[in-house]
Design a protein that fits this description.
The complex is a heterodimer. Chain A contains three helices and no strands. Chain A is an all-alpha fold. Chain A has one domain. The longest helix of chain A has 27 residues. Chain A is flat and about 55 Å long. Chain B is mostly helical. Chain B has a single domain, classed as Up-down Bundle (Four Helix Bundle (Hemerythrin (Met), subunit A)), CATH 1.20.120. Chain B is built from eight helices and no strands. In chain B, helix 2 packs antiparallel against helix 6, helix 5 packs antiparallel against helix 6 and helix 6 packs antiparallel against helix 8. Chain B starts with a helix and ends with a helix. Classes of the chains: A mainly alpha, B mainly alpha. Chains A and B meet through helix 1, helix 2 and helix 3 of A and helix 2, helix 4 and helix 8 of B.
Chain lengths: 103, 203
């Protein structure tokens, strides 16, 4: 049986809800500050934190068995590999301008 | 088929398995959500690689309506709260309250789709089609796939306040489990939107 399977705390839910809203507002604020690459890094960090709040509290991942957490961590690792391996290739492989036909 | 008969045919619909500690549907939905992470992950990956690999990229916020995107974020997040309330109401044996919150979840989802439709209509009025640029193609693909997920969620949630609600009178715990699984899917759709909003509208 899962831990605290049927516990729902309205105060905690309200706090998480307001926190995610506040963080979303922060991310919008960062957009208007035009911080360049730092703005993108900060946005990714904040949105990842929002996603963790949502997954761990609303989806009760915090009370879910370890096997589910392992499956999800492995999935996220595969995703990161999917993104960074080709991105690394783009960054380090020399290309001529004509090869960049995307605009 | 009678509930007891199906319980014999397919065990662990209600009770958790000893080995995984989860009932079938919950293990199933988590595996499904893992595959969904890979689906959206591959789309985000395509977006990142095309953006990083291009010499020029449009200022995305000039194409998109940030206030509408922000309103949609609030709507979807609020609908997540509604579905939690619906699930909690079932634990309190209050079916009327469950129906109220599940209906509110569906209404919120429909409002979200209406705003999305309005945004799409604005793009089409300005002749901004997927064929116009790589960014617009990615925007319509990512938000379109997400909107289809919202539509799927609406259909499932509507089923559970319509014909699917019969199960409540037959097997309460099984029904609660089904709503929990539907809720997990709904939160995931909300989570994906958080990333879509920040990636497409704000970066």
């Amino acid at each position: 049986m899962e831990k605290n399977e049927h516990i729902s705390d309205p105060k905690k839910e309200a706090l998480i809800y307001l926190s995610i809203l506040a963080l979303t507002a922060t991310v919008i604020g960062i957009h208007y500050l035009n911080l360049g690459i730092w703005g993108i890094a900060l946005t990714v960090a904040i949105v990842s934190f929002e996603a963790c709040l949502l997954a761990y509290h609303f989806m009760h991942l915090i009370h879910t068995r370890l096997i589910i957490n392992i499956i999800l961590v492995l999935t996220v690792l595969f995703f990161l590999g999917l993104v960074f391996w080709p991105a690394w290739d783009i960054g380090y492989s020399p290309r001529t301008p004509s090869e960049y036909s995307v605009n | 088929m009678h509930t007891n008969d199906t319980e014999e045919l397919v065990p662990y619909k209600v009770e958790s398995r000893q080995d995984t500690g989860l009932y079938n549907a919950k293990l199933g939905i988590w595996l499904f959500l893992a595959s969904e992470i890979m689906l959206f992950g591959s789309l985000f990956s395509a977006y990142i690689l095309l953006r990083v690999g291009s010499f020029s990229w449009p200022v995305q916020s000039e194409f998109l309506n940030i206030p509408i995107g922000a309103i949609n974020s609030v709507i979807l997040l609020t609908s997540s709260i509604f579905i939690i309330k619906a699930w909690t109401a079932l634990h309190e044996n209050d079916f009327k309250k469950y129906k109220k919150f599940m209906t509110m979840t569906i209404i919120a989802a429909i409002v979200f789709l209406c705003f999305k439709g309005y945004e799409y209509a604005e793009h089409f009025m300005h002749h901004e089609y997927p064929s116009k640029s790589v960014f617009l193609a990615l925007y319509f693909l990512l938000t379109g796939v997400h909107a289809l997920h919202i539509l799927g969620g609406i259909i499932v949630n509507a089923y559970y306040i319509g014909p699917g609600a019969k199960l409540w009178s037959e097997n309460k715990k099984w029904f609660i489990n089904r709503i929990e699984v539907a809720g997990l899917y709904w939160h995931f759709v909300d989570l994906v939107w958080l990333f879509l909003f920040s990636t497409l509208y704000l970066m």
